[in-house]
Specification:
The protein has eight helices and six strands, in the order βααβαβαβααββαα. By secondary structure, the protein is of the alpha/beta class. The protein has a single domain (6-138, 180-230), classed as 3-Layer(aba) Sandwich (Undecaprenyl pyrophosphate synthetase). The structure holds 3-methylbut-3-enyl trihydrogen diphosphate (IPE) (2 copies) and magnesium ion. One 3-methylbut-3-enyl trihydrogen diphosphate is lined by residues 17-22, 62, 66, 77, 188.
Length: 245
């Protein structure tokens, strides 16, 4: 951790937590066992992010596409969300962490919606790490919803078509309160975005590791941050322009 440059930390890290099923398989266990262990990694990474001083951490917990998994796995994950949130909220609160959820939460079972709602309410006044959990999330769906919201504003005369710009689009996404992630990490050796924050990741640095999510720890987060700090973020400019700025 001493090797990190505190002046070059991302404000916002997004993580696609992948590989729970394969981790469980390696242990000769049911896939759900991998999801339980994945919660341990979430706790460790949240602690580490707080310690390092990250302001925003987005975690992809369940995609819209994940609804198509076998019912037993989906139900197991839903119970795990409820249990974990109820158990973890007191500690999150103590650590001044503010919980947010993004995704189509209306598809969740009522008890899960209630747990999420309570978690958000209880931590609403906190000013430390913003922990954003994506559940039943689809970036394409989020963009479609934004298009509908903007269309309605135009229809009602609140907004003119030529006023629509990138800022307006961002403002109509469910992530409107958060800056875009500067670093996106995906575990388990898969090299894809899987419908996560497509618009928001436009200029994120992408970091892929073979480590399966249940094995991911603080040292892995630090490795990703070290790698991030070694990159030259050019935003379309030349390297010369960046270094002589
Ligand atoms: C990620 O792990 C967690 C969720 C998608 C809920 P997976 O369950 O996708 O694990 P693998 O990819 O099958 O190993
Ligand atoms: C992406 O993982 C979603 C989450 C980590 C929650 P998946 O394992 O579902 O993604 P694909 O199907 O391999 O793209
Ligand atoms: Mg997977």
């Amino acid at each position: 951790m001493e090797n990190l440059d505190v002046n070059k930390l991302p404000q916002h890290i997004a993580i696609i937590m992948d590989g729970n099923g394969r981790w469980a398989q390696e242990q000769g266990q049911d896939r759900l066992y991998g999801h339980y262990e994945g919660v341990v990694s979430v706790r460790k990474v949240v602690e580490a992010a707080t310690e390092i001083g990250i302001k925003y951490l987005s975690l992809y917990a369940f995609s819209t596409e994940n609804w198509d998994r076998p019912t037993t796995e989906v139900n197991g994950l839903m119970s795990l969300f409820v249990d974990t949130i109820s158990k973890e909220v007191p500690d999150l609160h103590k650590n001044n962490i503010k919980l947010h959820f993004i995704g189509n939460l209306s598809l969740l079972p009522p008890e899960a919606q209630k747990a999420l709602e309570e978690g958000m309410q209880q931590t609403a006044q906190n000013t430390g790490l913003n922990l954003i959990i994506a559940i039943s999330y689809s970036s394409r769906c989020e963009l479609v919803e934004a298009a509908k919201k903007i269309a309605n504003q135009v229809k009602s005369g609140q907004l003119a078509i030529n006023e629509i710009n990138e800022a307006i689009l961002s403002k109509n996404l469910t992530t409107s309160e958060f800056p875009d992630p500067e670093l996106m990490i995906r575990t388990s050796g898969e090299y894809r975005i899987s419908n996560f924050l497509l618009y928001q990741l436009a200029y994120a640095e992408l970091y892929f590791t073979n480590t399966l999510w249940p094995n991911f720890r603080k040292k892995d987060l630090i490795e990703a941050l070290m790698d991030y700090q070694s990159r030259e973020r050019r935003f379309g400019k030349t390297s010369h322009q960046i270094t002589s700025d």
